From TrEMBL:
Descriptive protein name: Lysophospholipid acyltransferase family protein
Pathway entry: Lipid metabolism
PANTHER family: 1-ACYL-SN-GLYCEROL-3-PHOSPHATE ACYLTRANSFERASE, 1-ACYL-SN-GLYCEROL-3-PHOSPHATE ACYLTRANSFERASE-RELATED
One Gene Ontology term of the molecular function aspect: acyltransferase activity
Alphabetic keyword roster: Acyltransferase, Lipid biosynthesis, Lipid metabolism, Transferase
Pfam family, one: Acyltransferase
UniProt-annotated stretches for the region Disordered: 93-113, 314-336
Residue ranges of domain Phospholipid/glycerol acyltransferase in the record: 125-237
Amino acid sequence: MVTEIFAAPKSAPVHAWMPACPCGSGCIDEGDRVGRVRVAARVAGVAGLLLSFPVVNGLTPAGRREPLHRGYARAMLSVLGIRLSVIDNRFADTEPDPNAPHPTAGSEPSRAAKRTRFAEPAQGALIIAGHVSWSDVLVLAAVQPLGFVARADMLEWPLLGKLAIRMRVIPIERESLRELPGVVARLRDRLRAGDRVAAFPEGTTWCGRAYGSLRPALFQAAIDAGTPVQPVRLAYRDGSGASCTVPAFIGDDGFTTSAARVLRARGLVAEVVLEPRELPGSDRRELARRVERAVRGESGSPHRDWIEAGSTRVRDPELGAPRPGHRGGVIPIRAE
């Protein structure tokens, strides 16, 4: 019933509805690495962007800040060595060429990435995606700046907390269910005002090859506001297009450990697939199920290549090949 952006090390749930994830260090790939000089250059680039953003943002007129924020998010991804790939399945003219080579880290953003938006200006939208890493925030903001529903203590984090405040984060106390109706009400008001707000209803981060179910509570805000929901399939891949768990923020990972793994990685690609928008309807559970099917890539497909084990969804190991248009192989995951 709750959502967050940055996951803390996993521990025993505080209450029965507290989201939990079985993913751990065994899920993590190290992948190819860059040298120490490149890592140092990336660290310097990140520091420069974080230090310059408040100054440049303050000097920029409010009406021109959206392109600035989008540019900074893309610059941060570039400095981290993460290539952004955007596939828009909402309109036929933006569908990707299945024979086109897979993008590599460091190359120019695709034409689709440059023109795609979650919604038009002043058009409210609830953006829903699976949750893998702290970098999810940068990836989504690089498509179009937006607000987020996030764990409350993130506002106190050094540097990142200040950025969260500027992004108008809606904080939520994961340990307190009593505060959830207030969060839903704030989210509803933001949507009614024409804001774009992203949420990760799994409630915690997963490795990207296994997933949690989407909790329905936050979908009530879209229903109350009469706002469409934008499902986003978010995945991380290596330079060859295979599924990659390097950016995952799971298990006993601290932020420093996870960030260091990303800074060392070579060829990371963040793939964002925008599926057709879902109308809110009147039943939040039914809406959550519809959006979950879209987020997992199950909409309109006669095949189901994910199986469910409790609250965990993993790729079916009996399927020996990916579906047409799906890059990467089938990787069996064991869920306890």
